[in-house]
Amino acid sequence: MRPIIRLATAADAAALQAIYAPIVRATAISFEVVPPSVVEMAQRITKTLAILPWLVREQDGAIQGYAYASRHRERAAYQWAADVSVYIHSDWRGQGAGRDLYTALFAMLRDLGYVTVCAGIALPNPASVALHEAMGMTPVGIYRQIGFKLSNWHDVGWWQGQLQSPDVEPAPPRALPSLQV
Questions:
Q1: Which residues make Cβ contacts (< 8 Å) with residue 48, sequence separation at least 6?
Q2: Does domain 4-172 have CATH number 3.40.630.30?
Q3: Average pLDDT per 10 consecutive residues for the chain, totaling 181 residues
Q4: N-to-C CA span, the chain
Q5: DSSP letter for each residue of the chain
Q6: How far is CA 127 from CA 48, 93, 123, 130, 141, in A?
Q7: CA 159 from centroid of its chain's CA atoms
């Protein structure tokens, strides 16, 4: 069977936590230092889905990765921008899972009325940089030595992409439930 992209549910929390926990424990890709529990992952999924998409890529019942959006900042003038993140199981990296997830996520964000996506990438991370640039995002700056993890200071590069042309007077973005019938 071909992989499918679908909305995550709280029932996916254990599979998502299994993908994310090794990244938290062993890399600087995430600046969390303690992996969230399965319960915490379920709460994050539920909270996100009230407003924004959280997607999984699944094949034959196995979740290969996930991507989600979050508010870029809380101030009202930022409401058309979303931060995006993608995490892929180690067995599926480099096989198009990230691109599939981002393609679907960006389309949903566009349909909700978002104009801009932003992504922070702990550096160095050439695979993540390549994915974000393949999705049309461009580098906009670097926070130097902003995070301390695994006994080292790490830079975070920021990438930005435009989902659609900004309107002079845009309507506020809609919440995710408005897309569901």
A1: 54, 68, 69, 70
A2: yes
A3: 95 98 97 98 98 97 97 96 97 93 98 97 97 98 98 98 90 91 42
A4: 26
A5: ---EEEE--GGGHHHHHHHHHHHHHH-SSS--SSPPPHHHHHHHHHHHHTTS-EEEEEETTEEEEEEEEEES-SSGGGTTEEEEEEEE-GGGTTTTHHHHHHHHHHHHHHHHT--EEEEEEEES-HHHHHHHHHTT-EEEEEEEEEEEETTEEEEEEEEEEESSPPPSSPPPPPPGGGG--
A6: 26, 9, 10, 5, 18
A7: 13
- Cβ(105)–Cβ(83) below 8 Å: no
Cis status, amide bond into 3, omega within 30 of 0: no
Model's pTM, two decimal places? 0.96
How many angstroms separate the CA atoms of 66 and 54, rounded? 7
Show Cβ contacts of residue 152 under 8 Å, excluding neighbours closer than 6 positions: 28
Q: Give the pair of three-digit tokens for residue 61.
A: 């019942």
- Which residue is it, tokens 């979050």? 70
Which candidate, 62, 58, 147, places its Cα nearest to that of 101?
Answer: 58
